[in-house]
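hey so u asked for the seq, here:
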Amino acid sequence: MALKKVAVLVAGSWGTALARVLADNGHRVQLWTRNPAQADEINRLRRNEKFLPGAEIPDGIAATTDLSAAVRDAAAVLFVSPSSAMRDVARQAAAFIPRDALVVHATKGFETDSLKRMSTVLSEELGRPEQQIVVLSGPSHAEEVIRRNPTTVVVAAKEIACAEAAQDLFMNDSYFRVYTNPDIVGVETAGAIKNIIALGAGLSDGLGYGDNAKAALITRGLAEIARLGEAMGAHALTFAGLAGVGDLIVTCTSRHSRNWRAGSMLAQGLPLDEVLTRMGMVVEGVRTTKSAYVLARRHGVEMPITDQLYAVLFEERPPGQAVEALMGRVKTHEIEEVAGEARRGRTPG
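ran it, structure tokens below
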């Protein structure tokens, strides 16, 4: 494969880790940041200490604060900005991105006000068909990818040729394996909503409820993700794959998970504002809880875990009361709930 110039926007933890994958694959990587001090740290010291402390940035990555220079002549542009900033970053970059450049994003969340998926936001701002936008997702902590730990992800696009082009760009034989999937709705929905369940897992662990409770939360959380995803047009099998159960497991069980850490702090009684201040980085699950809460009502889907986390985050419900509300729900049949409710025209609970 011919070596390419790839622009990565922005230089957070995940953007930096994926930049390393691209550089290891021999590509010339332009990593964009708004922060001149961060660009200087990456270029001079080969470090990005705020986001990936102790990790070494390879020489194949050059940081810049000049967005036009970063994306001009790029064969591919990778957007890894927070969901809240995606539209603004895409709007600024749109005029400079070559028309034939591959566009990929690796952001897990919805636009808060519009509730749109990131591929839709990029399509609108870049003026290109949504079916040509690719999403990269799956169980992949930046802290492990930057150290070349074995990782497997999925790239999804409605046009499979675009997904295959992204697969060729990112995949290598040593530590980063990439599968393709045509179900971009399912991959984006799973990647966003698993952050809500990870908040709940951190909250459960912070309350000392143990492994039984967390296993139940992950399992029932996956059911919620699949219900909403299918209502939005996703394929059920996507949620049994890397972007679904794979990403859910790693985010709910790892010390690297920002959402898990935030949930654990909430369980200790810290107010949400203080939790977010202490984290110092974006916790996508907080915004996504708002989005999923509204989307569930829009699509007529029952999401009890999401409802209770919404109450904890935004209505000051004590975490213990939220757990009691979940445990006290009306009894139901698990297999009937998973497989039979849709056939009878009722929303499962």
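Residues 339-349 have pLDDT under 50 and may be disordered. The chain has two domains: 5-182, 185-344.
lmk if thats what u needed
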